[in-house]
Write a sequence for this structure.
């Protein structure tokens, strides 16, 4: 019996060994090549994805930051000013973007030139840090109010903004060399130039146009097309993307003027990538304009106000433009364009900006202008769709 058992064991062992060899051959001839092939496909996909990766820079832009008397009174505390509460409901959206543009409508001349509201504005210098802390890093200063404190205001503002790093401020200049310097900011390997121009200057104090003859560099005007062409050419030599801030149009008018369209076409023909329009205080369309070289320029004719205590219904509805700059195969294009409706709230001793979709119901009854308009939010949504149209995504 023992011999029989040994033979059976030996036979069984031989069978097992043969089965192992057969299974190994099957794995080697079929399964391993398949796995290697799949692994190769995965690696190829990963390599392709890596090859097709591109740099993206996000941008948000808002409109006119107007420091009326009630605004700086609200921000006044213990002999200084703090405007950060005005922006607390919008801060997240600003800080989430790589680039954040704002039109600083009123000059930051500081206390030495006396803080004043409308019509000849002069705003506290503390506002600069408050805006930067909120997340803004692209600031325009070329507006019709740039000379409200004459050249002294321009110099004071330039010195204030010059203190801060990692931001660019354009539109008012205290010397020719300052004016000749193209403002560049770099994000994710892409260089952006910001150029600023205004169509007019107010004459509340002295004649600013007479003053400009002595300091022609101080505030760039849209009518100086020769300077615009030179600026754009210089910017092209230093930056990948050119953004223009254009302070233009008619105040409180929804219709885009012929002059706005004329300048928009000029910027498109020069190869500008994006034009951010301000000044009308109410929202105007966003559209593409074809340039003479086959390029397209995105024109946001007016973002409306941002912060103010203006007392008309239309000036409380505002907009935030959001988009991405995408660099792919050495080319840069604009994508993911969206418009977020905003609302300016002032009343109950506060001045604040909210996304329209997040405006608290209980605030409306306290709004200085809108308190007796219970359906205004729906009206604002409809107006936004009517003005912006269906080619731009509108965020609720």
């Amino acid at each position: 019996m023992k011999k029989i058992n040994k033979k059976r064991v030996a036979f069984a062992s031989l069978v097992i060994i043969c089965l192992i060899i057969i299974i190994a051959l099957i794995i080697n001839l079929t399964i391993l090549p398949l796995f290697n092939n799949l692994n190769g496909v995965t690696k190829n996909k990963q390599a392709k994805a890596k090859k097709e990766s591109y740099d993206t820079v996000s941008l948000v832009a808002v409109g006119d930051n107007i420091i009326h008397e009630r605004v700086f009174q609200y921000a006044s505390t213990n002999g200084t000013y703090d405007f950060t509460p005005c922006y607390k409901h919008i801060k997240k959206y600003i800080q989430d973007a790589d680039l954040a543009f704002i039109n600083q409508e009123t000059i930051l001349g500081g206390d030495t030139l006396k803080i004043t509201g409308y019509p000849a504005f002069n705003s506290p210098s503390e506002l600069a840090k408050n805006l930067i802390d909120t997340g803004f890093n692209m600031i325009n200063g070329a507006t019709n109010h740039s000379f409200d404190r004459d050249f002294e205001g321009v110099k004071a503002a330039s010195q204030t903004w010059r203190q801060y790093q990692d931001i660019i401020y354009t539109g008012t200049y205290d010397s020719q060399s300052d004016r000749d310097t193209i403002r560049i900011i770099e994000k994710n390997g892409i260089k952006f130039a910001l150029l600023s121009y205004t169509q007019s200057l107010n004459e509340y104090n002295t004649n600013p146009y007479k003053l400009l003859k002595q300091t022609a560099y101080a505030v760039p005007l849209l009518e100086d097309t020769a300077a615009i062409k030179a600026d754009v050419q210089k910017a092209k030599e230093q930056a990948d993307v050119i953004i223009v801030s254009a302070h233009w149009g008619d105040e409180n008018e929804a219709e885009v003027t012929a002059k706005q369209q004329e300048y928009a076409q000029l910027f498109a023909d020069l190869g500008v990538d994006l034009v951010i329009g301000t000044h009308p205080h109410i929202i105007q369309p966003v559209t593409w304009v074809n340039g003479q070289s086959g390029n397209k320029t995105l024109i946001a004719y007016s973002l409306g106000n941002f912060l103010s205590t203006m007392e008309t219904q239309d000036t409380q509805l505002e907009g935030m433009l959001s988009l991405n700059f995408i660099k792919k195969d050495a080319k840069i294009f604009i994508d993911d364009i969206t418009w977020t409706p905003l609302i300016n709230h002032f009343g109950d001793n506060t001045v604040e900006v909210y996304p329209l979709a997040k405006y608290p119901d209980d605030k409306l009854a306290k709004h200085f202008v809108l308190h007796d308009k219970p359906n205004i939010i729906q009206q604002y949504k409809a107006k936004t769709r009517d003005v912006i149209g269906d080619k731009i995504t509108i965020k609720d």
The longest strand covers residues 331-347. Residues 1-53 form one domain. DSSP finds eleven helices and 17 strands in the chain.
